[in-house]
Predict the structure of LITAF domain-containing protein.
Amino acid sequence: MQPNREQPPPYTEQPPTMVHHPPTMVQPTIVQPTVIQPVPVMYPVQTVTVTSTGLIGSDPTLMTCPSCLNQIVTRVDRSPSCRTHVMAVLCLLLFWPCTCLPYCVDSCNNADHYCPHCNTYIGSYKF
């Protein structure tokens, strides 16, 4: 048996012709560059007025705080100094029951002054 070898039918149709369209003119879009304007930064202006009340002592002092500018009475924290320890040793040698006395007496300790509002260190009174 032989395969059926038929010829393809003749091609009678014309291939489609290419229609030539004239090129369309596209208007170019001009993009303007965007200019970013810097935003001015406003910084707060702080004016500090320091009022000197003179020397601070071992007691709380009425003054104006140099940090928060409030009228305050300073908060005093007591701390022993080298002189306090020397006095305690002298008390130990001379009369031992009075050894803790320099640590209990406010005038034998340094007085560190702080603002009660903002806790800023203001100064010290050294024994």
In short: The first strand starts at residue 62 and ends at 64. Residues 79-125 form one domain. The beta strands are 62-64, 71-73, 75-79, 110-114, 121-125. The chain has a mean pLDDT of 79.
